[in-house]
């Protein structure tokens, strides 16, 4: 192309080369300048956040954190059973669809309570285990709803100053013992150590989990805070493992392939609705070869339908839908008798290969979500397929209890630095530590301590070291730390994921001993120390204990702040006697609200 004067013309593209190049250079320089400003501001903000989190007006980069003495006020009496992240006063803010309002919804920072939760009027030190399994003080859990509404089912009954627990339930009004006896006849693996861990969804007052303790099976009893008033609180008051929770819109805070058995006794969960997401979540957390037990509608509908306010045709349809859904997600009917039906999760990969068919329903999960991701992770209507390479994940491939407690699980190799050698080292380390702990706190191993929480465990070593003592341990793994919880469950122990910047899913006054190992060092950049201590105070029983193992940098500051929670603490050496790490042995005082009658 030429101009009319005959000279060759530059193309349009060529004519923009110089200005475009200049523009790019200018923009790069400007972005570098602005990026430098932004990054410096960001760094300044993070440092400010760390200082705020540890609340340290004094101290140096090399010296220990020092804080001014604080004294936390009492909460008003209405907060005696305060559960911050499952607070009934905040339910109206959330949707009723799929009962999402009963899930965790923690208050924003400006609504957080900075006060000490008082015990109810007339509170007494809980009755000690094993007597507590059958009775508790009425004043400690002063709720009559279950007593009045479920009196014909013998969940509990009030006599004088106590609640008594006869061992009844909706599907076993004549006692849980005979109910579990029948279950053992249907599932022989409950008798020989094959089945060790279980979950009970919609647990009532945890009579099923309580009975299984005597049979060597450790159960997580799960129930929401709902109109059944204090189900989980009753369970923990009895000394039975329990946690607040519900299968609604989010995954339960447990890794995949964890439990050996799951149970629902007329828990009224609509298993076949919403694409089967509730049953798919049970499938996710149940290990291959594990068992799902259902009693109540629609099982035994031929005899029971008249008492369920329905028709036999409706119940037959519900049962057929349930069976079809279970088959499609690789369950098989294992056994059935009277009101109990048992399905087994298949460990044969040939069934899961069928899910590759694009027309299959439910389909195989392929959205990239980690199978073990379980902290505020939405439920999805798809099947989490077990890793076919994990040969020792199957129930029948695990060593039987109690041998499995000290055998390095296969899944430890999935963790960075995880190995059989690291597992053995951790196991031996905790045996030595526990020997030292028992010298400093002789109450460990006695009936004074029943409900225990290891607030930031690695492999469950603390729990393994006290396995022969009359107590149980809730192993907590930080949602921000490497997820070692699969290893905990493969050992035959129980636990949950949690973020300690938030309140734990339990009622006040539910643990006798809290153990902390470097939690403040690990989380002080995210969580304010005072809120962690206030949460520890909320869930610790009066006269309960805390063992705080922490770096020397934090230990004095923690001790100072603990005085503000009315704890008495003493500083002790670790079993190694090193300067960089110390122990605080603390005890919570029993006090009553000034508003108490």
Automatic annotation (TrEMBL):
<feature type="transmembrane region" description="Helical">
    <location>
        <begin position="20"/>
        <end position="38"/>
    </location>
</feature>
<protein>
    <recommendedName>
        <fullName>Methyltransferase</fullName>
        <ecNumber>2.1.1.-</ecNumber>
    </recommendedName>
</protein>
<keyword id="KW-0325">Glycoprotein</keyword>
<keyword id="KW-0472">Membrane</keyword>
<keyword id="KW-0812">Transmembrane</keyword>
<keyword id="KW-0735">Signal-anchor</keyword>
<dbReference type="GO" id="GO:0005768">
    <property type="term" value="C:endosome"/>
</dbReference>
<dbReference type="GO" id="GO:0005802">
    <property type="term" value="C:trans-Golgi network"/>
</dbReference>
<dbReference type="GO" id="GO:0032259">
    <property type="term" value="P:methylation"/>
</dbReference>
<dbReference type="Pfam" id="PF03141">
    <property type="entry name" value="Methyltransf_29"/>
</dbReference>
<comment type="similarity">
    <text>Belongs to the methyltransferase superfamily.</text>
</comment>
<keyword id="KW-0808">Transferase</keyword>
<keyword id="KW-0489">Methyltransferase</keyword>
<dbReference type="GO" id="GO:0008168">
    <property type="term" value="F:methyltransferase activity"/>
</dbReference>
<dbReference type="GO" id="GO:0016020">
    <property type="term" value="C:membrane"/>
</dbReference>
<dbReference type="InterPro" id="IPR004159">
    <property type="entry name" value="Put_SAM_MeTrfase"/>
</dbReference>
<dbReference type="InterPro" id="IPR029063">
    <property type="entry name" value="SAM-dependent_MTases_sf"/>
</dbReference>
<keyword id="KW-1133">Transmembrane helix</keyword>
């Amino acid at each position: 192309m030429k101009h009319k004067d005959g000279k060759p013309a530059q193309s349009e593209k060529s004519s923009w080369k110089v200005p475009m190049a200049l523009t790019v250079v200018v923009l790069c320089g400007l972005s570098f300048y602005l990026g430098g400003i932004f990054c410096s501001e960001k760094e300044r903000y993070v440092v400010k956040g760390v200082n705020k989190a540890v609340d340290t007006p004094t101290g140096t980069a090399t010296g220990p954190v020092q804080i001014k003495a604080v004294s936390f006020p009492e909460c008003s009496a209405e907060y005696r059973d305060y559960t911050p992240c499952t607070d009934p006063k905040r339910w109206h803010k959330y949707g009723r669809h799929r009962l999402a309002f009963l899930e965790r919804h923690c208050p924003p920072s400006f609504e957080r309570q900075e006060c000490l939760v008082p015990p109810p009027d007339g509170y007494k030190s809980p009755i000690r285990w094993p007597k507590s399994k059958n009775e508790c003080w009425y004043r400690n859990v002063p709720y009559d709803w279950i007593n009045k509404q479920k009196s014909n089912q013998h969940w509990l009954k009030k006599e004088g100053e106590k609640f008594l627990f006869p061992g009844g339930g909706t599907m076993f009004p004549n006692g849980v013992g005979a109910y579990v006896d029948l279950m053992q006849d249907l599932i022989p693996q409950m008798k020989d150590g094959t089945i060790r861990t279980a979950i009970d969804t919609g647990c009532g007052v945890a009579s099923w989990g309580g009975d299984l303790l005597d049979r060597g099976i450790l159960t997580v009893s799960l129930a929401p805070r709902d109109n059944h008033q204090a189900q989980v609180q009753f369970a923990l008051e009895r000394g039975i493992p329990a946690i607040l929770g519900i299968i609604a819109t989010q995954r339960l805070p447990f890794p995949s392939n964890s439990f050996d058995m799951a149970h629902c006794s007329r828990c009224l969960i609509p298993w076949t609705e919403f694409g089967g997401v509730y049953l798919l979540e049970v499938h996710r957390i149940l290990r291959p070869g594990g068992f799902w037990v259902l009693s109540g509608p629609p099982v035994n509908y031929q005899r029971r339908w008249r008492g369920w306010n329905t028709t036999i045709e409706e119940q037959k349809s519900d049962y057929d839908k349930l069976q079809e859904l279970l088959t499609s997600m690789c369950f098989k009917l294992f056994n059935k008798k009277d009101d109990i039906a048992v399905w087994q999760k298949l460990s044969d990969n040939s069934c899961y290969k069928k899910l590759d068919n694009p027309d299959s329903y439910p389909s195989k999960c392929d959205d990239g979500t980690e199978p073990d991701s379980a902290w505020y992770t939405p439920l999805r209507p798809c099947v989490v397929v077990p890793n076919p390479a994990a040969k020792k994940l199957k129930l029948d491939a695990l060593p039987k209890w109690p041998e499995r407690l000290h055998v390095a699980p296969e899944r430890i190799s999935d963790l960075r630095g995880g190995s059989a050698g690291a597992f053995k080292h951790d196991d031996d380390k905790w045996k030595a530590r526990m020997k030292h702990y028992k010298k400093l706190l002789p109450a460990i191993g006695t009936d004074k301590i029943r409900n225990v929480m290891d607030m930031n465990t690695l492999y469950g070593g603390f729990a393994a070291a006290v396995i022969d003592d009359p107590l149980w341990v809730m192993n907590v793994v930080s949602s921000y730390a490497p997820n070692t919880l699969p290893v905990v469950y493969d050992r035959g122990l129980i636990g949950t994921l949690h973020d300690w910047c938030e309140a734990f899913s339990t009622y006040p006054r539910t643990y006798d001993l809290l153990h902390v190992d470097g939690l403040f060092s690990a989380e002080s950049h995210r969580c304010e120390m005072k809120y962690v201590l206030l949460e520890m105070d909320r869930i610790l029983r009066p006269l309960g204990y805390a063992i705080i193992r922490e770096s020397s940098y934090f230990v004095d500051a923690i001790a100072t702040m603990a005085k503000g929670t009315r704890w008495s603490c003493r500083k002790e050496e670790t079993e190694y006697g090193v300067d960089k790490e110390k122990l605080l042995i603390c005890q919570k005082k029993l006090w009553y609200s000034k508003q108490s009658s």
